[in-house]
Inverse folding.
């Protein structure tokens, strides 16, 4: 790889041990993927924040990097294993909380903003069209590449941290025009509405892409989509298809930048949507947990939940998972009081997947196809997908 003199100095240790280690990680990655050079990144988002994923080995790596490492660009974190202020109320044990805070402290020491969210684009870590970034959370990577038109590969925890400490990433993959073309034409012949339905659609397309061995769909037939619908779609298609970039005609900014694929066509109709929705509803289901906010709830979604919960009482454990800055807006707007008076709980900084709650509930209802996947695979819950309104109805039933 061609390195600038500053990058070479980092590699030679002139900027300290953490910068040297970071440049070693990035040049190794760059060589594996034949990158010609590094590119400057505007911002970073780091995953692998939950102590449940990090463990002592991960924590040791972080502490080592924190000895002299300092971020060079704006960097935020993915959800942690607990709400950092309200963990007791969510049933997190003290030992886990202590260890989670040790990890957050190491990130803070490096100058990372310790806001833990999978929707960095909703809380100020937001690139604009064409900017290079290094993000790690799969749904956010898909959103930034597709909906914003920024450029990032899906980074692992160590490579994202390395980019934060150097301000660079190797220029390969989705950073290059030649890797951003649509590969498969997908025609939607049915109305799609709501976060749950966009999640169902993401699963259908994701599953088909895996069958075809392709990654980038070019989607037609969606006349409009909200931020919330697109974030749900991104989470789902990234989960089921490993997709980090899609184009949606008339909606995403690069849809007409590259030729429309013509050779492989997937058609999706109402029957496909119904069938796949049923796959996300388990038999013999007893729902004792409802969670909204995968990816993290926006202020629009929280306003909607407050409207639906006003004057009601929930009868089941009900979490709204969101970023702490979004929760603060909800506090100021009076939504939090309505929601908490109804007995629902905010779980800021975390989510129903990364929190250590495996086996604690029998069945979960969510509006997210991604949460269905991990609710089953990781937490061993039975699952049901439904619209936000139906989730709230279930919680108060
Ligand atoms: Fe975010 Fe957790 Fe879902 S990290 S995308 S809320 S699984």
């Amino acid at each position: 790889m061609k390195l600038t003199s500053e990058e070479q100095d980092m590699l030679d240790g002139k900027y300290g041990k953490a910068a040297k280690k970071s440049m070693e990680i990035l040049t190794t990655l760059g060589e594996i993927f034949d990158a010609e050079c590094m590119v400057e990144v505007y911002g970073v988002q780091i995953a692998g924040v939950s102590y449940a994923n990090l463990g002592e080995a991960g924590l040791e790596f972080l502490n080592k990097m924190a000895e002299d490492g300092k971020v060079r660009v704006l960097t935020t974190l993915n959800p942690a294993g607990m709400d950092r202020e309200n963990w007791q109320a969510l049933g997190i044990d003290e030992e886990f909380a202590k260890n989670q805070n040790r990890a957050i402290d190491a990130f803070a020491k490096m100058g990372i903003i310790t806001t833990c969210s999978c929707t960095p684009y909703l809380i100020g870590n937001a690139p604009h069209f064409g900017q290079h970034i290094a993000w790690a959370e799969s749904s956010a990577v898909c959103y930034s590449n597709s909906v914003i038109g920024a450029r990032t590969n899906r980074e692992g925890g160590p490579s994202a941290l390395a980019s934060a400490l150097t301000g660079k990433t190797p220029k390969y993959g989705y950073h290059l025009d030649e890797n951003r073309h649509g590969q498969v034409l997908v025609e939607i012949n049915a109305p799609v509405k709501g976060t749950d339905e966009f999640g169902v659609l993401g699963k259908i397309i994701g599953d088909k892409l895996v069958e075809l061995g392709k990654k980038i769909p070019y989607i037609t037939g969606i006349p409009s989509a909200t931020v919330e619908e697109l974030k749900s779609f991104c989470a789902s298609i990234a989960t089921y298809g490993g997709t980090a970039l899609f184009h949606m005609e008339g909606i995403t900014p690069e849809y007409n930048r590259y030729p429309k694929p013509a050779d492989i066509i997937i058609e999706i109709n109402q029957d496909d949507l119904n069938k796949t929705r049923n796959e996300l509803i388990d038999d013999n289901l007893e729902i004792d947990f409802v969670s909204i906010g995968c990816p993290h709830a926006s202020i629009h979604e929280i306003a909607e939940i407050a409207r639906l919960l006003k004057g009601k009482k929930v009868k089941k454990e009900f979490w709204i998972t969101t970023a702490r800055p979004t929760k603060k807006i909800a506090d100021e707007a009076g939504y939090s009081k309505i929601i908490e008076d109804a007995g629902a709980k905010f779980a800021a900084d975390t989510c129903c997947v990364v929190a250590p709650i495996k086996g604690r509930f029998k069945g979960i209802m969510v509006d997210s196809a991604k949460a269905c996947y991990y609710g089953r695979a990781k937490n061993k819950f039975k699952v049901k997908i439904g619209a936000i309104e139906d989730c709230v109805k279930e919680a108060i039933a």
